[in-house]
Amino acid sequence: MNGTDENKYIQVDVYLQGLMRRLSNPDELPKFNGYLEENRNLAELITESKLPEELVMFMEDMNSKLEHIIALLEHNRMEANFPIDIEVFSLSAAGAGFRTKSRLEPGQMVEVVLPLSQLPLVTAGGIGKVERAEHPEYGSVWKLSFTRIREQDMENIVQFVFRQERKRIREIRWE
Description:
This protein has 175 residues and is of the alpha+beta class.
């Protein structure tokens, strides 16, 4: 992703609590590899199967419960691998605006993991470069520009941003 790509993506104001880790070098491989892709394929297979509707509903319910258990188990592993807590205030497929209590340097390379949905568990992760920015409402906010992001993670962010925008449009319409 290059600098001109940043203007292609809509940015939305959000509040997400994410995790981050510093990279020792810019070519370091990501530790986060996502979850959702396999679950989508399983859900499609179950839905398209010729199983009785009651069995499909039972299997979808079990899958949902298993996702919760996996998310709880995964949380501890994620915190060990990504020791820096962040609060994200803006998000797009090009990057994010965030705040953290940890010390960062402009130009530093980091990897982030963002939970976009609890149920079903939808996350996105990427590697990016940290830049300094100021935001009058939130105080000192860092800007992250993604330099490497998997296609599935980018798609998850784009869908999340789209849902947030639709939600805001509906809220404005009903005011």
